[in-house]
Amino acid sequence: MNAQISRFRQYLMYEKGLSPKSVEAYLHDVLLLADFLGEDNIESATFEDLQKFLKHLYESDFNARSQARIVSGMRAFYRYLIYARQREDDPTELLDAPKIGMHLPDVLTVDEINSIFEVIDLSTPEGHRNRAMAEVMYGCGLRVSELVTLRLSNLFFDEGFIKVVGKGNKERLIPIGGTAMKMVNHYVNGKRKELKIKKGEEDYVFLNRRGAHLTREMVFMLVKKWVKDAGIEKTVSPHTFRHSFATHLIEGGADLRAVQEMLGHESITTTEIYTHLDQDYLRTNIALFHPRY
Fold first, then answer.
1. Is 233 or 202 the better-scoring residue by pLDDT?
2. Do residue 139 and residue 247 come from a single domain?
3. Rg of the chain over all Cα atoms, to the nearest angstrom
4. Which domain holds residue 50?
5. Which of 83, 102, 118 is the last residue of a domain?
6. What is the crossing angle of helices 20-37 and 256-263, to 10°?
7. What is the Cα–Cα distance from 45 to 28, expressed in whole angstroms?
8. Coil, strand, or helix at residue 98?
9. For residue 23, what is the enclosing H or E element?
10. Would you say the C-alpha torsion 278, 283, 289, 290 has a positive or negative sign?
11. What are the pLDDT digits (tens) for 235-271?
12. Nearest 5 degrees, angle CA 290-CA 240-CA 225?
């Protein structure tokens, strides 16, 4: 990290008074640019240089929201350089960020999560499997593709972790809580052993009644049924459990980088959407409970 980027960090912390999470997010954006241009070239970058960088982001499959967030970070950096009298012009002035709508994913409350768990019928042959799946989706923030491909050989319950294979075949370790472990063990050591498992499917955790691993479509159908049975009127999919996992962590004060790692996000800018949700949560609580709001 060169001297100006280090000073930019101090400026965000002490002059602008930003939170540590926001400071690190801005630095992440600027360091992406520094990696592309070279640290020695970032201070003298031209409008054309920044356009090439945005083209690089697009070709690297950064989504529109991530690109817009990175442009915001670049703007903050070059405005700081002007403030610090290190530049007279702002190369981001004519830069167009991708147009995005403000989209915040639907999130379940803790009470709604609990109500879903409660309506899963444990007396049915698939009940313990379904409850274990719901606990893992919410407790570990898995994508539905990661859930249906979860393997017995990747359960490290003695250490309190599971290993999943995410986008781009990238592996990551995720902590798993006691409740989720208990439900998975109950299913694996119980009803799952009664199945006639198809050849090649032995290592998958969650199986259908024919002994094959579940499909994404089956999980979507199950979630739809649980939500209906729980009387929840929100639009809910398996991914909603993942959103709820991240939101509840951020609301509880979890570090943004830790949440990024658990979700398997390539860029922290993707994870940052949950800071917006957190701000809405705080604003709602102030409106409800502050006597002078």
1. 202
2. yes
3. 23
4. 3-83
5. 83
6. 60
7. 17
8. coil
9. helix 20-37
10. positive
11. 888 988 988 888 888 777 777 777 777 777 766 666 5
12. 115
Asked whether the CA dihedral 28, 33, 34, 35 is positive or negative, the reply is positive
CA–CA dist 293, 21 (Å, integer): 27
Residues whose CB falls within 8 Å of the CB of residue 220, separated by 6 or more in sequence, listed in order: 144, 237, 238
Q: How far apart are CA 41 and CA 53, in angstroms?
A: 13
In a domain, 97, yes or no: no
Number of domains present in the structure of the chain:
2
The first and second tokens of residue 30, run together, are 């600027």
76 and 115 belong to one structural domain: no
Distances in whole angstroms, Cα of residue 200 to Cα of each of 145, 211, 212: 18, 10, 9
Q: Which residues are catalytic?
A: 143, 167, 239, 242, 265, 274
Query: In the prediction, which pLDDT does 168 show?
Result: 72
pTM: 0.58
Q: What is the CATH number of the domain that holds 40?
A: 1.10.150
